[in-house]
């Protein structure tokens, strides 16, 4: 079965985008729970994600979600000490998770560099085991920011992780976006999502968005390598959509 075509939703600006994605997340989580399932969502790092996380606290219908029965995962993480503000998990916790009645046991943070793992490779493997052990690693939603170079999670253009198809995580030790050492879900994991949401703001992202929608080479534009099993949605502000035709 071929995945459906990508949808593009354009918003006036970054604030409208953040609010809209926050509402979409709340509505999706509530809908999955109405189906009797515990939703699994993979969060992403970055600036527009941070704004979206904060906007969740203002979504009117957020009480419709039983936040204690949501599994939160991370698409990637910076391999730094657990309390480091550079961590995507710390940013998501500070902006959103600690303000909601989530079950800490269902917030699946990627390992930190001071957690006693042998090294980032062992840490990545440990998270991969956790993802696979949880419902076979099928996500309801994977959210992804996109870099100006078209990277998603910590899958950067030309990186060996792009070709890892027998593991759900990969250790990255030469990331061009600091910090250099990271853990990332692989395409194999990112593509096991009912829905993939690309959340992208800013003119500097417009070329990568346009290339991704034109089915570019995933080694040059990693965002082109991810699509949802049921839906792929590009949630953009007008600046990031500037080169999208049609
Ligand atoms: C990270 C992110 C990364 C981010 C993009 C977009 O750990 O840095 O997961 O993939 O989502 O770089 O970031 P901005 O939205 O800040 O441009």
What does this structure look like?
This protein has 246 residues and is an alpha/beta fold. It is 26% helix and 18% strand. The chain is built from six helices and nine strands. The strands form two sheets. The protein has a six-stranded parallel sheet with strand order 1-9-8-5-2-3, covered by helices on one side. It has a three-stranded antiparallel sheet with strand order 4-7-6. Helix 1 packs across helix 2 (47-56). The radius of gyration is 17 Å and the shape is globular. The structure holds 6-phosphogluconic acid (6PG).
Please give the structural blueprint.
Layout: E1 7-11, H1 14-34, E2 40-43, H2 47-56, E3 71-74, E4 76-78, H3 88-95, H4 120-132, E5 139-144, E6 169-172, E7 182-185, H5 187-190, E8 193-200, H6 206-213, E9 231-237
Parallel strand pairs: 1-9, 2-3, 2-5, 5-8, 8-9
Antiparallel strand pairs: 4-7, 6-7
Bound molecules: 6-phosphogluconic acid.
Radius of gyration: 17 Å
Quick one: how many beta strands?
A: 9
Shape: globular
Task: Kindly report the spatial arrangement of strands forming the biggest sheet.
Answer: 1-9-8-5-2-3
**Low-confidence spans:** none
Helix content class: 25-40%
End-to-end C-alpha gap: 26 Å
Largest sheet: 6 strands, parallel
The fraction of residues in strands falls at 15-25%
Query: Structural class of the secondary structure composition?
Result: alpha/beta
What is the chain-wise order of helices and strands?
Answer: EHEHEEHHEEEHEHE
Ligand inventory: 6-phosphogluconic acid
The helix count comes to 6
């Amino acid at each position: 079965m071929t995945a459906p075509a990508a949808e593009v939703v354009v918003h006036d600006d970054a604030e409208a985008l953040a609010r809209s994605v926050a509402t979409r997340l709340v509505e999706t989580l509530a809908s999955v729970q109405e189906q009797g399932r515990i939703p699994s969502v993979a969060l992403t790092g970055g600036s527009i994600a941070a704004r979206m996380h904060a906007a969740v606290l203002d979504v009117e219908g957020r009480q419709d979600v039983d936040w204690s029965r949501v599994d939160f995962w991370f698409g990637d993480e910076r391999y730094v000490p657990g309390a480091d503000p550079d961590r995507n998990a710390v940013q998501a916790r500070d902006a959103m998770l600690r303000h909601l009645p989530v079950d800490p046991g269902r917030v699946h943070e990627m390992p930190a560099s001071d957690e006693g793992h042998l090294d980032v490779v062992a840490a990545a493997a440990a998270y991969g085991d956790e993802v696979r052990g949880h419902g076979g690693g099928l996500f309801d939603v994977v959210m992804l920011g996109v870099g100006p170079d078209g990277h998603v999670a910590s899958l950067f253009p030309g990186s060996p992780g792009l070709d890892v198809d027998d593991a759900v995580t990969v250790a990255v030790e030469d990331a061009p976006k600091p910090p250099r050492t990271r853990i990332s879900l692989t395409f194999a994991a990112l593509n096991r999502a009912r829905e993939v949401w690309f959340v992208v703001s800013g003119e500097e992202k417009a070329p990568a968005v346009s290339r991704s929608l034109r089915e570019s080479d995933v080694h040059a534009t990693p965002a082109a390598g991810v699509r949802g099993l049921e839906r792929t949605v590009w949630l953009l502000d007008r600046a990031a959509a500037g080169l999208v035709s049609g």
